[in-house]
Amino acid sequence: MALRSGVYADSVRLMQVSRDVGARDGVTAVLVAMATPLNLDLAAGMGLAPAEPASPEQLLVAISADDDAALAGAVAAVETALAERQRSTASAQAVPARTIGAGLDALPGDGPALAIVSVPGPYAVAEAADAIAAGRSVLLFSDGVPVEHEVALKRAARAAGVLVMGPDCGTAIVSGLALGFANAVRRGPVGIVAASGTGAQQVSCLLDAAGVGVSHVLGVGGRDLTAAVGGPATLDALAALDDDPATEAILVVSKPPAPAVALEVARAAAGLRTPVRQAALGPDAPDLTAAVEALLGDLGVAVPDWPSRPGAGEAALPGAVLKGLYSGGTLADEAMLLAGPVLGDVRSNTPLRPELGIGTDLAAPGHLVLDLGDDALTVGRAHPMIDPTLRLEAIAALAASGEPAVLLLDVVLGFGADPDPAAALVPALAAARARTTLPAVVALVGTEADPQGWSRQADALAAAGASVFASNAQATRHALGLLGGAA
Amino acid sequence: MTLRDLLAGPPTVVAAGVDVFSAALRAQGADVHDVDWRPPGFGDPADLAALALDPRRPAANRTAVERLLAAGSVLTDVRPAKEVLGVPGRTLLHAGPPIAWADASGPLRGALIGACLFEGWASSVEEAQLRLASGFVHLEPCHAHRTVGPMAGVTSPSMWLWCLEDPVQGGRAFCNLNEGLGKVLRMGAFGEDVLTWLAWMRDVLGPVLQAAVRSMHEPMDVKAVLAQMLQMGDEGHNRNRAGSLMALRELSPAIVGLAESSGRASGELAEVLRFIGGNEHFFLNLGMPTAKLATDAARDVPGSTLVTVMSRNGTEFGIQTSGTGDRWFTGPAQTPVGLFLGDFGPEDANPDIGDSAIMETYGVGGFAMAAAPAIVRFVGGTVPDALATTERMYQLTLAENPAMAIPILGFRGAPTGIDVVSVARTGWLPQINTGMAGRVAGTGQVGAGLVQPPRECFEQALAALARGARAS
């Protein structure tokens, strides 16, 4: 028997509560009602009259039960029923959520859910923080997120037991669902932790071509393994994949980590039950294709001939230089790492060494590999994996410049990417090649199951005279071969 | 959800930003919910980020909300202001942020003049104006003295105050007695009839209510009445009909009992009962201190971005937040939009005035519009508008108040605890229901309608809170 002040519910609701609680085992009588004289009389009739004086604004909760346990259970059930929020069904006035917080709050049920944030960088942190506060992981696709915000978000995420995927690495596949830029790869035993978006796409697509699927791909952000960030998302993702029954082997894809962070990741990896292989691009490290081949060896799977359409092997003009026009930063890095030892200095807007930088001069002469997806070039425009304009302009400008060259491109397929990249690229290549001798080599990253279809795109590009390779390393070596270097 | 749950199965996705990713997810058969994201309505992105990342903020807002929701409100006494407030003689309290006579609008000036005449501090309107202008009469905001007052909110030493207490956290709050509608002091009227009526309130209504309240066996649970009003078509700001009748029901046995216990003339008691029964806003002056008790309980939590005060003095709109104490953030008061009495029109309306926006600060009033379909036409809207207004306010607030359930929304708790950061991010300003006073002193009420705070208040509060977050 209790009287409660400051609680009010209508009589119909209270009758429902009384009925539901009265149906519980061990409960002999229940009256949950406002303490009006009528209801007090009813309670007295049931032998449940309150000892203290009651007023009509108070809520009377009167329960008799067989034992203390049944009573406690019934009291708890009353609390739950009174607190239960009944979602509106009367309102047709659906007001759309304006923030991730409101959107998550409006979700019915509490099954697995996560947030994807791709709003402009300066505003992204508030949306991502909403997800963390709601106890949900977030794929932070936005670029231009300051590193100190990344650090603070990941610190909050660790405390909340959730993962911040990103920023600057817009790839994830969670339980077969491709988020951001990702490919339609088969499901299987390999879990991928990726501090590189296109790197993760390259390795997952090559695995798929070898008949090996992935359990999950967790992009952790291009800066996660830097000294400033310290690898928190990588460590959490490793632990999560280690706990995941579907994951039998883990591959960590990244640019070279900061030494202290690399040490910590290696230590964590050594403590896992699941074997971990690192694919960290660097001057002394294997390329991504070689890393995949090594992993296949671990798994006892034969390395296939990687899909390609090599074409006739068109000769470059004398004195030709390498012109790499990439949409994926990691793929551009891989091309530079492979080309450097052969060609000497390769300059870039994202150079391997600062002295190789070209600033903003995208038409600089000589060996050049550009990352057209770099933050500095995507301010106010879509990523080149969605919008080809910047690359099409660069191809036309190259043809017009008269500088003899071999053209090296990546074309990244999959969810989120241009639905038919060949449609724009083929006429651009045809126009350029009509003007000058310009051998073209394409690293085509994707799978047959991708919306664009690897073979459909490969055939169209090959028909335009390009040499096409599923492996970026193979494509780069092919281009170097055309330039007369060691292939 | 833990990281392990993240990998437990295909997730539902909530997406903000470019729609190409949502389209790709739908193509895979995923359950995708797009957020109608847009750039913040105001605020430096760096400030918003600093607050979003302030590690103090989630816990601070939780604490503030818990205190706000836990606050109760019981009516403990009715006493003259001079016995309660402890302010020096010749001080008048007024609604809204601090203001000087020179900046006061028509209705506030009218009410101040009326109060000077009522207190005998001046014998003519001209003399009252001189004494107010010279500083002979001192002005202070109600909010600085745990007090709230509707419209002009002018409270003078001889006026009687409702005295309320939060039995949970021990807070106290005060509000003057409602005068009724039409030509009344709070609307800026100060004619002979207004002063005569104030004298009746001082000499009859106040003492009767005091004796009645003191004779009650159980103090009135005012919060419980407010909760029930929302089930009966009131929203607690512009519609107080059910609440006023419930207050009458609570008080009348004690009032009638005074005939026997203290020998009050039955005609006098009947007059009091007739006044209460005929005044549809009688309860507003009980609801406001109830809201004040709750929002005061949420004060002074470092790092909290919860709004503790929204109030207007007829010239400026001011807010305070939990994380910034009693500092006011002000902007120009807007003129309400709505319907007008008689021949009055928009040109007759004064900019927004009154402490009564404490109701919205507490999550009722305009925030609980969905509970009061009967008034939406009076304040110039439709029933769907009312539902949408409340739905929007959920995105500005930190909590749902289980004690203030809204029937048509499936008894969902009213949206409560305005978050400055959410106001900025959604670009939606709080919705306030309000009365409208005539802009010329002495006019009285000209209408009622809807109004919003100026964005400037929230801009300044956001910047100040962000400075606090960086310094922490």
- Mass-distribution shape of chain B: globular
CATH fold description of the largest domain in chain B: Enterococcus faecalis V583 fold
Helix count of chain B equals 16
Radius of gyration of chain B: 23 Å
Helix content of chain A: 25-40%
* CATH architectural designation of the largest domain in chain A: 3-Layer(aba) Sandwich
What's the rounded overall pLDDT mean of chain A?
A: 90
| DSSP summary, beta strand count of chain B | 17
Question: Any idea of the CATH class of the largest domain in chain A?
Answer: Alpha Beta
Shape of chain A: elongated
CATH class of the largest domain in chain B: Alpha Beta
Multimerization status: heterodimer
Number of strands of chain A: 18
| CATH-level-4 superfamily name of the largest domain in chain B | Enterococcus faecalis V583 domain
Specify Rg of chain A, calculated over alpha carbons.
30 Å
Strand content of chain B: 15-25%
Structural class call of chain B reads alpha+beta
Low-confidence parts of chain B, pLDDT < 50 over ≥5 residues? none
GO cellular component, one term (chain A): cytosol
InterPro entries (chain A): SUCC_ACL_C, Succinyl-CoA_synth-like
GO molecular function, one term (chain A): succinate-CoA ligase (GDP-forming) activity
Protein name (chain A): FdrA protein
Q: In brief, what are we looking at here?
A:
Chain A is of the alpha/beta class and 487 residues long. Chain A is 38% helix and 19% strand. Chain B is globular, with a radius of gyration of 23 Å.
Explain the overall architecture.
- Chain A: Residues 325-479 form the ATP-citrate synthase/succinyl-CoA ligase C-terminal domain.
- Chain A: One of its GO terms (molecular function) is succinate-CoA ligase (GDP-forming) activity.
- Chain A is of the alpha/beta class.
- Chain A has a six-stranded mixed β-sheet, with helices on both faces. A six-stranded mixed β-sheet of chain A has the order 13-18-17-16-14-15, sandwiched between helices.
- Chain A is built from 16 helices and 18 strands.
- Mean pLDDT of chain A is 90; it is low at 86-92.
- Chain A folds into three domains: 2-83, Alpha-Beta Plaits (2-Layer Sandwich); 113-299, Succinyl-CoA synthetase domains (Rossmann fold, 3-Layer(aba) Sandwich), CATH 3.40.50.261; 308-482, Rossmann fold.
- The N and C termini of chain A lie far apart (87 Å).
- The longest helix of chain A has 16 residues, at 68-83.
- In chain A, helix 5 (121-133) runs parallel beside helix 6 (147-160), helix 13 (389-401) runs parallel beside helix 14 and helix 14 runs parallel beside helix 15 (454-463).
- Chain B has 16 helices and 17 strands.
- Chain B folds into three domains: 1-34, no CATH class; 58-68 and 295-471, Alpha-Beta Complex (v583 fold), CATH 3.90.1700; 72-287, Enterococcus faecalis V583 domain (Enterococcus faecalis V583 fold, Alpha-Beta Complex).
- In chain B, a hairpin with a 5-residue loop joins strand 14 (397-406) and strand 15.
- Chain B has 472 residues and is α+β, with helices and mostly antiparallel strands.
- In chain B, the strands form six sheets. In chain B, strands 3-7-8-6 form a four-stranded mixed β-sheet.
- Chain B has helices at 3-6, 19-27, 45-52, 57-70, 81-84, 106-119, 125-134, 192-215, 222-229, 241-261, 266-278, 284-297, 358-361, 383-394, 420-426, 455-471; strands at residues 12-17, 32-34, 74-80, 91-94, 138-141, 147-148, 160-165, 172-176, 307-313, 316-321, 329-332, 337-340, 353-354, 397-406, 412-418, 432-437, 445-451.
- Chain B is globular and about 80 Å long.
- Chains A and B meet through helix 4, strand 4, helix 5, helix 6 and strand 8 of A and helix 1, strand 1, helix 2, helix 3 and helix 9 of B.
